[in-house]
Amino acid sequence: MPFTVRVDRDQNKDYELELAGWGTDYRDPLTVMRIFMSSSDLGGVTYSNDEYDKLIQATRTSHAADVQARFDDFIKAQDILINQDAIIAPIYNRSLSTLVNPNVKDLYWHAYGPSYSLKWAYKE
Asked: Of the residues 6, 24, 92, 100, which has the fewest C-beta atoms closer than 10 A?
């Protein structure tokens, strides 16, 4: 179906099953997992689970400075989404493979956003 029709049906919740994707803003599980919180208006998702909300909120507050506890919360929240409530079924993960000539120097690889910058690159 044309993309504009898909967007319209998504916004009106006129579907039984939707195949969709979400691009990350930064390298952290929160960038995707926040869209499934009850209070979220991101991604057109209508889902609510109090335990999930508590876990994700803890990653932003009480466990924000404790890396291990924070990622444990994400693992538990992921289990709720995928195994318990089956609200999502991840079927692929987009990736990028790039071959770079070893004579190309100072190619800058970004942690998030665009994959790389050529601004400082040069050929030896």
From this structure: 92
CB 38 within 8 A of CB 45: no
Give the residue among 53, 60, 57 at the shortest CA–CA distance from 36.
Answer: 53
The pLDDT confidence band at residue 122, using thresholds 50, 70 and 90, is very high
One-letter amino acid for residue 73 of the chain: D
Tens-digit pLDDT profile for residues 74-94: 999 999 999 999 998 888 877
* Torsion sign (Cα): 112, 4, 45, 17: negative
Distance between the two ends of the chain, CA-based, in angstroms? 48
Q: Which CATH number fits domain 3-84: 3.40.50.720, 3.90.1700.10, 3.10.105.10, 3.40.50.2300?
A: 3.10.105.10
